[in-house]
Amino acid sequence: MSRARVRAYRAGIMAETLAAWLYRLKGYRIVARRYRSPVGEIDLVATKGQRLAFVEVKRRKTRDEAAFAVTAKQKRRIVRAAQYWIASHPAFVGYAIAFDVVLCAPWALPRHVENAFPT
Amino acid sequence: MFARVTTVAFEGIEARAVDVQVQISSGMPAFTIVGLPDKAVAESRERVRGALNAIGLALPPKRITVNLAPADLPKEGSHYDLPIALGVMASAGAIAPDAIEGYCVLGELALDGSIATIAGALPAAIGANAMDKGLICPEACGPEAAWAASDMPILAPGDLLQLLNHFKGLQTLRRPEPDLEAEDEAMPDLGDIKGQETAKRALEVAAAGGHHFLMVGPPGSGKSMLAKRMPSILPPLAPAEMLEVSMIRSLAGDLAGGRIGRNRPFRAPHHSASMAALVGAGTRPRPGEVALAHLGVLFLDELPEFNPQVLDALRQPLESGETVIARANHRIAYPSRVQLVAAMNPCRCGHAGEPGHVCRQGPACADRYQARISGPLLDRIDLQIEVPAVSAADLVLPRSAEGSAEVRDRVAAARTRQTARYQRLGLPLVRTNAQADGAVLEEVAAPDAQGLALLRDAAGTLSLSARGYHRTLRVARTLADLDGAETVSRIHIAEALSYRGEALRRAKVAA
């Protein structure tokens, strides 16, 4: 990997850690991190009460840029991965499923977008 | 987590109850609409989401399923937005489900939460009244819906927030007031026409008996002018008829400001009209010109210029008084009891039959031109007259003393006599002589001895067909009604014989 890509990868991991703490501060419990399935990946799975949130974390130069980086194709992959995850964790079947996005940028507070998609 | 809202789907002018069932369950967030929605209904998802966002509510991130029952009836139109939004709100707990229970809901939503007008509020209101429910409809449709019944509750909110506040008791929506269209003062008057006394008389007869009417004459002889004055001499619509006419206009989205009028409809489609435009068809059936002219006048100017197939499609509505549109997934009937008024030139150049005119193409020109109208259609036209060109001598005459008002009184009197007669005979559906047929006609229009003798002679010399014989009797009956006579006598028969469409035949011979 090139130096630039290594740096971006590390920044991404940092952003995910930051997002995980954001969720914990909001009273969530982190159930899974960096979940990988054959159909897609999920950055964070967090739950609070009956809400089960699948979180996509995006980091770019600005938070607006990060928002545009969540493409329709990626959303579909996340939704499929979430179905895959629930199928292998039957304890969470009755939960209200939600898809959140956390937008990060250097030297800026992360922006938390609840229920970002698919409704 | 479950709510149901009642709305309607339109089948012709009938409103069929449709149940909007909304279920919110846990699971992958989704918003699906099932129950044969067409494109406009499926797209209501985005409008519902936008409108809810605009008033500060968000769709719950859950699995929302909307079912439109009965599932096999195709749902068309944009009026399902409001019932879907209310169903979602009720099942999400934003409004009490019992608040909307007694209502039938219609309305299209805008993204800012305002409720846009829809077509068909009046038939929906009548349907809702039959289901013993109130109606929630857009603000602009309120006055028209209020005609359905004076005691049914009607809510006509301008936007979603007003409706929400009404249910919460923060604001009261008043019942809209039924509104009448202003009487159209600018209707052209029969007094404007100089000369043409014969044609005016025939127009009066046609109006009195509800007969179909054909005028044949050269260009500029005032045929269109005469036809445009037909509505001004017809009696105004009775309250029940007004409702019938308005229902069709409502479905076509043609009621301006929700006001309904007493004037009889007058439709004059251009001769390029397609069959779909005239009788109403297409994948999404809408009332055509014939249905829109129900209980009024359908004026076809330049009759032979119409597509012959389109004209023949008129035969069934003229015969049965309703247009039946049968398609793979619909069978819809619109009432279309129209009075056909047609105008045409005797030949393509327009002057055949005029004294001193010689057509270079010979009689074939007129023949070809007139062959475009099928015999069966002509057969259904009781009154056929010739309108000669106006001479300059007629134009310098002063304005005729008799205007539409006087003629309208005579027409109204003749019509009252007819309706009373057919009611006495136990035929409430027959309103005018034009609708009388067969045995009934022979009974009510039986001429006296002299009249009978004349008719017998005429039948021989003019070789009257069976249909021509009945047509003569029918027109003679109307003439007697105009005179206030109980029985049809010799003069009535004589005048009726003159309206038999000699014009066409003579033009052919002379050209």
UniProtKB/TrEMBL annotation, chain A:
Keywords, ordered alphabetically: Membrane, Transmembrane, Transmembrane helix
GO molecular function per UniProt: nucleic acid binding
Pfam families: UPF0102
Signal sequence region: none
Residue intervals passing through the bilayer: 84-109
Keyword Transmembrane: yes
Homology family: Belongs to the UPF0102 family.
Protein name per the record: UPF0102 protein AUC68_11875
Naturally occurring in which organism (per UniProt): Methyloceanibacter methanicus
Taxonomic classification: Bacteria, Pseudomonadati, Pseudomonadota, Alphaproteobacteria, Hyphomicrobiales
TrEMBL record, chain B:
Record's protein name: AAA family ATPase
Occurrences of domain AAA+ ATPase (ranges): 209-391
Pfam families noted in UniProt: ChlI, Mg_chelatase, Mg_chelatase_C
Family: Belongs to the Mg-chelatase subunits D/I family. ComM subfamily.
Gene source species: Methyloceanibacter methanicus
SMART domains per UniProt: AAA
GO molecular function terms listed in the Swiss-Prot or TrEMBL record: ATP binding
